[in-house]
Amino acid sequence: MQKADSLQELHKIVAAIHPFSGEEWEHFAGIWQPVSYKRKEVLTTADETERYLYFVLEGVQRAFYTGENGQEATIVFTYPYSFSGIADSFLTQTPSLYFMETLTPSKLLRTSWQQLQQFIQQHPVGERWLRMATALALKGALERQTELLTCNAEQKFRKLLTRSPHMLQLVSHKYLASYLGIDASTFSKLLATVRL
């Protein structure tokens, strides 16, 4: 994908959150650089402050937490065309509790904390855009938390199939089970029996 095409995809998502004028968009588009990663590359480690905000063009990534016993809990998946990175660490510039890795070869656009701050200082619309983007991310996180607390395993599985059926082909089932908060054997049973 050419950078111009990549920026068009970014522009669609940015404008849906909060529109920029032509000049504002030109400056905003200029702070993003294309980057590529191989499968299973770590983008951010726990205890490291997230330096980048990413926009996914190709591939799948996941954020996960590792408990004291070494067990991993998948927090979120990102894929085209969504923002990626450890959002709370990026926004607060504090060390992350989570890891971010690529699950497949990935092409992304990225901008740094410093570049985004410079843009916001020059264009107040950037702060409004970032506030709206953060509010939408919080809304999604709260909806997901509600699902985890109130839905049984089959309901969670059905919601995944409805919302993101393509993930079954892209992501290891053990990561999907972790994301849903169910064990791998339950996931396998649901995969064999549940149809939409």
Describe the structure.
Residues 35-123 form the Cyclic nucleotide-binding domain. This is Cyclic nucleotide-binding protein. InterPro entries: cNMP-bd_dom (IPR000595), cNMP-bd_dom_sf (IPR018490), RmlC-like_jellyroll (IPR014710). It comes from Filimonas zeae. By secondary structure, the chain is an alpha+beta fold. It has two domains: 3-142, Jelly Rolls (Sandwich), CATH 2.60.120.10; 151-196. 51% of the residues lie in helices and 21% in strands. The protein has nine helices and eight strands. The chain has a four-stranded antiparallel beta sheet. The protein has a four-stranded antiparallel beta sheet with strand order 2-7-4-5. A hairpin with a 5-residue loop joins strand 4 (61-66) and strand 5. The radius of gyration is 18 Å and the shape is globular. It starts with a helix and ends with a helix.
- Principal-axis shape equals globular
Kindly report the spatial arrangement of strands forming the biggest sheet. Answer: 1-8-3-6
Which band does the percent of strand residues land in? 15-25%
Please give the CATH class of the largest domain: Mainly Beta
Distance, first to last CA: 34 Å
Q: Briefly note the structural class of the backbone.
A: alpha+beta
CATH-defined topology of the largest domain:
Jelly Rolls
